[in-house]
Amino acid sequence: MSDSRGTAPSISSSTDRVRLALGSLALVVLLAATWVVAGIALQGAGVGVVSAGRTAFAALGLLAVATLARGRSLRTAPRYVGWQLAILAVTGVAGYTMLSTLAIARAGPTIPSLVLALTPVAVLLLESALARIRVHPLVLAATLVAITGAVLYIVPRIDGAAEADVVGGVLAALGAMLSMSVYGLLFAHVNRGHSGAITPRILPIFALGSVPLLVWAVIEVSLGGTIEPVSIAVLALLGLGIYVPAYLVQHRIILTAGPSYAALLGLAVPPLVGIASVLLGLAAPPEALQVFGIALTIVGMLVVIRMRFRRVDVNAESSQD
C-alpha cells in the first residue's frame, strides 16, 4: 500500500474543526463577494483587463503578506520544482481564468455554471482514485445531492442560451473544470504535510500565472479596449481586499480538509450571490424550485461536513487505543 493514506488531510482537534467551519463560511462569503465586485469592474473594463487586473493585484497583495511574514521570521517553504510551478500556474490561474471566461463569452454564464457545478464530484473521484481511498457512499451521495441542488437553482436562470455557442461554451467549461480539478489535486499533493505559512506556497503560482493574463490584457487594450479609472480602483479592491484573503483561506482548506471539500464549498456561492442580489434589490426573489435547490445544496454540504468531522472523531479514538 502506498503512503497516500498517511498523507491524507486531517483535522486533529476540536479547535481545528471550529477553525475549518469558520474558514469555510469565510471562503463562501469571500467568493460570493468576488462575483459582485467583478461585475462592477466589468462595467468599465474588458474581460481581459479585469481578469489580469484582479490576479495581478492579488499577486501584489500576496507579495506584501509574504514580506511581512518573513519580517516576523515565519518559516518559509521550500521552492517548487519547475514543472510543478508551471502546471499549477497554468491550471489554477491562467488556464482556468481563460477557459471559464471563454465559456461565459460563448454560452453565457448559466450553462457554464451548470458544467462547473460538477467539479466537486470530479475532484472527489479523482482524489479518491489517486489516494487509493474508497469514497464513502454517503459522502458521494451527499455530494451529488448538493450538486443537484445547485443545478436546480441555476436551471431557471437559463435565458437565451439557444442563441449562444452552447457547444463551444460547454467544451470551454469542461476544460475549466478539469483545469481547476487538476490544480486542487496537484497543490494538495505537492504541499502534503505542509503546516507553515501558506502565502509562500501560492505567491509563485499567482505571480507566474498572471503573466499570460497580463499579455491578454495588453492585447485587448491595444485592439481598442478601454479602462475607466474607477475600474482600476475596483480591481485593486477586488485583488487586494477580497482575493488575497480568499486565496489564503481556500488553500489552507485544501491542505487541511482536502481539495474535494474545498470544491464543494463553491456550490454555496451562486445561491448566496442570488440571495444578496435580492436583498440589495438587484434581482427578483428565487422561484420555489430554486429555494428547493438551495435547501438541497445546504443539506448535501452539511452531510459532507459532518462526515469529515465524524472521520476525525474516529481517527482520534483509534489513535488513543
Task: Give the topology.
Blueprint: H1 14-41, H2 47-71, H3 82-107, H4 110-116, H5 119-131, H6 137-154, H7 166-190, H8 199-222, H9 229-257, H10 259-265, H11 269-279, H12 288-320
Walkthrough of the structure:
With 321 residues, the protein is mainly α. It contains twelve helices and no strands. The protein has helices at residues 14-41, 47-71, 82-107, 110-116, 119-131, 137-154, 166-190, 199-222, 229-257, 259-265, 269-279, 288-320. The longest helix is centred in the C-terminal third of the chain and has 33 residues, at 288-320. The radius of gyration is 20 Å and the shape is globular. The chain starts with 13 loop residues before the first helix and ends with a helix.
What would the principal axes of the Cα set say about the shape? globular
Q: Helical proportion?
A: over 70%
Q: Which radius of gyration do the C-alpha atoms yield?
A: 20 Å
Secondary-structure-based class equals mainly alpha
Which series of helices and strands comes N to C? HHHHHHHHHHHH
Keywords:
321 residues, mainly alpha, disordered N terminus, disordered C terminus
Condensed summary:
The protein has twelve helices and no strands. The protein has helices at 14-41, 47-71, 82-107, 110-116, 119-131, 137-154, 166-190, 199-222, 229-257, 259-265, 269-279, 288-320.
